[in-house]
Amino acid sequence: MKFCIATTDHLESICKITVEAKAQLKAMGVDQWQNGYPSKEIWVEDIKDQRAYVAVDSESNDVMGAFTFFTSQDASYDSIDGAWLTGDIHKDGGYASLHRVCVSNTHKGKGVAGSMFLFAESLTRNQNIASIRIDTHPDNKPMLRSLDKAGFIRCGLIALVSGVEAGSLRVAFEKIL
């Protein structure tokens, strides 16, 4: 498996994986990603801003998974019912955050999510950032397990502050590197 910044050549695969993830969440009765988010337009913006990454199969060149990597402050993380491991010292954006993490159905169970988390950790370290934050729906059991397995610590609940899912509660995680 190799990682690279996503390009428009990857867009169709990323959108297909996103549709698969939405279908899986719906089948589990989870309302996350069920109202148009993330859309193709969001991925286009992520690609344009060079914050979208893909995990690619080294042999077949298939896109196995995708995620976005941010180093700017996430307004949804300003208020938490609980406590960040790093407290409020990172309110200036001194943390990385991961969003839109998804894995292709054909590559689930192969450690893709864990590998994406490890790659994101290396991106974070390379930018001299001390921690990574991420959130997910309280009922998204596969992602909750993946985050626990990857060593992320549950810090509390946050409410999304923008977009079509504004107001939705999410379990917030952080990992100090």
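^ that was protein a. below is b, sequence first then the tokens
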Amino acid sequence: MSNSDPSSLSYEQAFAELQTIVTSLESEDHPLEQSITLFERGQKLAQHCAALLDHAELRVQQLTEDEMAQ
């Protein structure tokens, strides 16, 4: 698990780390505090991924609108 700021990660990097965290939480037995820390990191990564996807969707919409306007 990385301690870097999620906003500095690409979508692919953030999603891969999020998958690792989910797998770890589902399959391993962690102390409560570590589980909470992993969950918090996962939440931040999920929010970052969602924001990147929203931004990409907006860009696609703008491109589509520009294309239709021509």
